[in-house]
Amino acid sequence: MSSDTPKEPPARGMLYDPTEHRIRSFVTRAGRLSTAQARALEEQQQFLIGYEKAPLDYAQAFGRQAPTVLEIGFGMGGTTAHIAAAMPEKDFIGVEVHTPGVGSLLKLIGEQKLTNLKAIQHDAVEVLNHMIPDASLHGVHIFFPDPWHKARHNKRRLIQAPFVKLLVQKLAPGGYLHCATDWEDYAVQMLEVLSAEEGLQNTADGYAPQPAYRPLTKFENRGIKLGHGVWDLVFSKK
């Protein structure tokens, strides 16, 4: 997440926000809504938290005091719902920009009657800057962010030093940051960036074993069968 004004026009499909002076790390896709996703977006509004430029009161949002975990870019929400169901003692907030994914997660929340999971449909950097109080998060999950695999697009990757510093600011002491990727060169970059952040310490010697709470996705299983690697990184705030 560069804070510098870009010296070249953004790639096609990329949004440059002149008010934030940064290149976004995601492409806005309209996507196709299924009937079930559209229905969930209409009927499960209670599980959506609207974006505001004001600190979010977790206790008010969930009706209780509990450790809060933020997931950035939850895709279609399957992993997010699985983890929330397995950890009822924690509250989870998923942030995603794409409407089909939000609809899919809301559908899962309703089907599984999850009371500890809510979604915000907005840019994660703005949510972090304006809605997440400092030193308030128990954990942050970032699973399989867009690798921007072309070298000229590497600067658009989410895991960059300024963004990691912002995450550390939002983590409570002892809170953790869990990243996962199936692109080896991105894993190498993640390890370098996270290791260089003075506010973090690695919980493993290099890459971490896959934590038991993170399920394998169908995509990940398919990749593993084809011999592709997956790298988990788990760091804690000092």
From TrEMBL:
SUPFAM superfamilies: S-adenosyl-L-methionine-dependent methyltransferases. S-adenosyl-L-methionine binds at E71, E96, D123, D146. It comes from the Bacteria. Keywords: Methyltransferase, S-adenosyl-L-methionine, Transferase, tRNA processing. Residues 152-157 are annotated as: Interaction with RNA. Coiled coil: none annotated. Its EC number is 2.1.1.33. GO terms for molecular function: tRNA (guanine(46)-N7)-methyltransferase activity. It catalyses: guanosine(46) in tRNA + S-adenosyl-L-methionine = N(7)-methylguanosine(46) in tRNA + S-adenosyl-L-homocysteine. InterPro entries: SAM-dependent_MTases_sf, tRNA_(Gua-N-7)_MeTrfase_Trmb, tRNA_methyltr_TrmB_bact. Substrate binds at K150, D182, T217, K218, F219, E220. Pathway: tRNA modification; N(7)-methylguanine-tRNA biosynthesis. GO terms for cellular component: tRNA methyltransferase complex. PANTHER family: 3-DEOXY-D-MANNO-OCTULOSONIC-ACID TRANSFERASE/TRNA GUANINE-N 7 - -METHYLTRANSFERASE, PENTACOTRIPEPTIDE-REPEAT REGION OF PRORP DOMAIN-CONTAINING PROTEIN. Catalyzes the formation of N(7)-methylguanine at position 46 (m7G46) in tRNA. Belongs to the class I-like SAM-binding methyltransferase superfamily. TrmB family. This is tRNA (guanine-N(7)-)-methyltransferase. It comes from Duganella phyllosphaerae.
